[in-house]
Amino acid sequence: IFVSSRGTIFVSGPGQPLLRSIDGGVTWKKSHDWSFWRMTEDNMNGTLYAGNYSHRNDPVFNARVFRSTDEGTTWQTIFEDERLDHVHSIRWDAKYRRLYISTGDTSRYRGQAYSDDEGRTWHWLNNGSSQGHTDIAISDHFVFWGTDDNLGRLIRAPRDPAQDGKTITWAPYHHVWWVVAEKQQIYAG
Question: How far are the Cα atoms of 12, 112, 134, 149, 158 from residue 161, in angstroms, in the given order?
Answer without folding.
Answer: 33, 15, 22, 25, 7
